[in-house]
Structures are given as structure tokens and as C-alpha cells.
Input
Amino acid sequence: MAIIVNLDVVMARKKISAGQLAELIDITPANLSILKNNKAKAIRFSTLEALCKVLECQPGDILEYVADED
Amino acid sequence: MAIIVNLDVVMARKKISAGQLAELIDITPANLSILKNNKAKAIRFSTLEALCKVLECQPGDILEYVADED
DNA sequence: CATAAATTTATCGAAAAACGATAAATTTAT
DNA sequence: ATAAATTTATCGTTTTTCGATAAATTTATG
Output
């Protein structure tokens, strides 16, 4: 694991629930959950854009690179 | 347009060419060019990870959200 | 503690897009 | 001018998102 999705942090900052966020960025709660819990293997820029717009943040607030042993 | 790929900036900082970077992250120069020039519509975390590793940077250094009218 | 609400997990199928391979065109160096 | 590097373009394959849906699980709430 190396690219981490930190949506929880940004959501907490904005005080928004997963259900609300899913509705605002127009994806199903199921799919947002996958993204939010690091089960996704890629992300469309359209989705990242919607997240940044709604959460008023930058990609760097959501995505983090964590170096690991190898 | 809203999510911008700022690879040029990071590459300049690291003084690395597109050809070299493509080889290091193991994708074709053609595909790196697409990504680098904002022609891609998504990115795999495996690719973003490789970029961050080689360029010693964070996703936020590469991806930027630019708000526009709408 | 019971029940409702919210979230997560799991399938399935369809649509989208990455990516390799390749070649041609273009741009940039020398 | 010539070579090298980069970009653009196609095509086919593979990967992955994403919707739709339902079940399972977790988290509130009375």
C-alpha cells in the first residue's frame, strides 16, 4: 500500500457524512465507501474534481503517498 | 478543465527528462506524455505511486484542482 | 436492548479509460 | 541539416470505475 485516500480527514473537517458526500458528488454510497476505505485502484479526475469542489480542498488533502519497504 | 497534472514542475525540480521518467516508472514515453499534458482522464494509484517514489514528492505536488466557472 | 439508519461489503454487467505496442508527426537540441 | 526527444494518433487488450442492487455489518437512537 502506498497511495492513501484520506477522505475521512477532510470530511471530518467539513463535518459531512458519507451519505451526504456521495449525494453531492453524485456517486453511490457504495462506491464512495470503496474509495474512502482504500479499496480503489484508480480514480477518475472527474471524481477527484467533484470531491475537491464539494470539500473545498486540493487533491493533496485527499491523496497521500506513503513510502514503504521495498 | 479542473484537475491539472503538474508533472513538468516536479520534473524540472528533479532535473529529469520525460524519457528518463518513463523508463523509471516503467510506462511508455507515449503514455507518460498523455498524462503529463493533461490528456488523461484518470490515473491508477500504482502509477501515481511510482511517480511519487521516483520524483520523491507527494500527489499534491503533481495534481492540482483549479476551480472554474460553473 | 431493540430497532432504525448509515455504512460497508459483495456481485454482476456495462462503460470508460489506462496502458502497451507501434508508427508518424512534431518539436527541441546539437 | 540532422539527430534526438517528445508528442500525437490508432488499435487491441486488460484493468478498473461505476451503477444497480442486495446483504451484511456497524453505528446511532429511543
